[in-house]
Automatic annotation (TrEMBL):
This is Serine acetyltransferase. Residues 14-118 form the Serine acetyltransferase N-terminal domain. GO terms for molecular function: serine O-acetyltransferase activity. Keywords: Acyltransferase, Amino-acid biosynthesis, Repeat, Transferase. Pathway: Amino-acid biosynthesis; L-cysteine biosynthesis; L-cysteine from L-serine: step 1/2. PROSITE patterns: HEXAPEP_TRANSFERASES. InterPro entries: Hexapep, Hexapep_transf_CS, LbH_SAT, Ser_AcTrfase_N, Ser_AcTrfase_N_sf, Ser_O-AcTrfase, Serine_acetyltransferase, Trimer_LpxA-like_sf. GO terms for biological process: cysteine biosynthetic process from serine.
């Protein structure tokens, strides 16, 4: 007799929690049953659910849901880091956004999370040489969510974009892991140069609403940029900058400003060293 091999079901606590929340949501609000079943409960994995959401939101008369879903399915299958980043982004939103009480909310309702996952598919397309399709995804993401991220930009995992209205991230921008940014943030250039011209945002940086970071400058790890600031020069790690143009106004106030989400210039409360 041939050797029998046991089938091991992968453990995915994030997806298991989403499904549990989805079942409860259907019980509490039956009118959303069709939406929640189609968006979450009909899918075997988080990646499949994200592919469905991607295709549903970005489809148009120019590109069908079926084609977009096939593209997303291919991306998630070819690059497992996309699913890992999606989970890290989801946990980041849940932990940092006081308006997020369940894991299913970002997937169904938060355009910042959905736009970021659409960018990740576009970035995969860009890396595989499918630049025109990547531009199409960028265009539709901007049209649907008000978030314009060039597909060549590099963005780490555990990123939260809160509210996400009027976000612009340029072609040569780099965003590290565990970054938080609010609405109307621009990571842009300062002129018409075509080479490396956009900011490099370190790990753990908190960028306040309406902040503009311009040029090929480095924003150090675990720093804070105050709301409405215009940053034109490099920022050392663990500092707070504010103003137009921005200048250093103090320390970051805690070890993880992007997690604490404290925008007070006096520093984060109850921080651990």
């Amino acid at each position: 007799m041939g050797e029998m091999r046991a089938t091991v079901t992968p453990v995915d606590p994030v997806w298991d929690r989403i499904r549990t929340e989805a079942l409860e949501a259907v019980r509490n609000e039956p009118l959303l049953g069709a939406l929640i079943h189609a968006g979450l409960l009909h899918h075997r994995t988080l990646e499949k659910a994200l592919s469905y959401r991607f295709s549903l939101k970005l489809a148009s008369g120019e590109m069908s849901e079926q084609i977009l879903r096939e593209i997303a399915d291919e991306a998630y299958s070819a690059d497992p880091t996309l699913g890992a980043a999606a989970r890290a982004d989801l946990v980041a939103v849940y932990e940092r956004d006081p308006a997020c009480h369940r894991f299913l909310q970002p997937i169904l309702f938060f355009k910042g999370y959905q736009a970021l996952q659409a960018y990740r598919v576009a970035h995969w397309l860009w890396q595989t040489g499918r630049h025109d399709m990547a531009y199409f995804v960028q265009m539709r993401t901007s049209e649907m969510f008000g978030v314009d991220i060039h597909p060549a930009a590099r963005i780490g995992k555990g990123v939260m974009i809160d509210h996400a209205h009027s976000i612009v991230i340029g072609e040569t921008a780099v965003v590290g892991d565990n970054v938080s940014m609010l609405h109307s943030v621009t990571l842009g250039g300062t002129g018409k140069e075509e080479q490396d011209r956009h900011p490099k945002i370190g790990n753990g940086v908190l960028i306040g609403a309406g902040a503009k970071v311009l040029g090929n400058i480095r924003i150090g790890d675990n720093s804070r940029i105050a709301a409405g600031s215009v940053v034109l020069s490099e920022v050392p790690p663990c500092k707070t900058v504010a103003g137009v143009p921005a200048r250093i106004v103090g320390e970051a106030g805690c070890a993880q400003p992007a997690v604490r989400m404290d925008h007070q210039l006096k520093g984060c409360r109850d921080c651990e060293e």
